[in-house]
Amino acid sequence: MRDQVTTVDQLREFIEEPHESIVKKTISIIDSHVENYLASASLFFLATSDSNRNTDVSPRGDKPGFIKVLDERTLAFPDRPGNRRTDSLLNMMQNPQVGLICLIPGMDEVLRINGRARITRNEEFIASQQWGGKTTGLAVVIETEEIFVHCPRAFKQAGLWNSEYWLPKESQPSFVEMYKAHLRINGYREQS
């Protein structure tokens, strides 16, 4: 690709070094502010990659409080039944590094967490977390390495929580049509 940026020096020609306060806002522990945020978060996006650097991002949502703080360096969440692809879990088994972007509906600011994940099947531990609803019998435990608040610019620009910017139902893409089209591309024929 022509004009590709491939070095840090080239990148810094366009984007200056971050202000010291931006660098110093990163912490590694779960303080009371982070714990309070996580208690209200009902959605996060989980980024994982396998040993070949193939990356996946998966949404995880539940009632507020489903992200449990175990101590100042550890949090956990339940694995819920889904489509059974288990992309994130398979990736964690090969590469434990994960990233989370946690959200509270209606808030433009997000909380970013990076750390190392492990999967547990410990029934006693899972029961002790009092996660309502069905789990797969597994939970993910993350040791935090970096935690920081992220500015609201992207959500404000997207108007994510402002219903004036939402597409009317009749203009929204049809996921059923997309799903069926993708099956056809891959040669899958639906059973009658």
The helix fraction, in percent, is: 25-40%
Number of helices: 7
Which stretches are low in confidence, meaning pLDDT under 50 for 5 or more residues running?
A: none
Name of the top-level CATH class: Mainly Beta
| Topology-level CATH name | Pnp Oxidase, Chain A
Spatial separation of the terminal alpha carbons = 46 Å
- Shape type: globular
Say which CATH homologous superfamily is assigned: Electron Transport, Fmn-binding Protein, Chain A
Beta-strand proportion:
25-35%
- Helix-and-strand structural type: alpha+beta
Order of strands in the sheet with most strands: 2-1-5-6-7-4-3
Mean pLDDT comes to: 94
Number of DSSP strand runs:
7
Radius of gyration: 20 Å
Level-2 CATH architecture? Roll
Account of the protein in words:
The chain has 192 residues and is an alpha+beta fold. The protein has a single domain, classed as Pnp Oxidase, Chain A, CATH 2.30.110. It is 27% helix and 28% strand. It has helices spanning 8-14, 20-24, 32-40, 87-94, 123-128, 153-158, 175-185; strands spanning 43-49, 55-61, 68-71, 74-78, 97-103, 110-120, 139-150. The chain has a 7-stranded antiparallel beta sheet, covered by helices on one side. The longest helix has 11 residues, at 175-185. The radius of gyration is 20 Å and the shape is globular. The N and C termini lie far apart (46 Å). The relative contact order is 0.15. The mean pLDDT is 94. Residues 32-129 form the Pyridoxamine 5'-phosphate oxidase N-terminal domain. Pfam families: PNPOx_N.
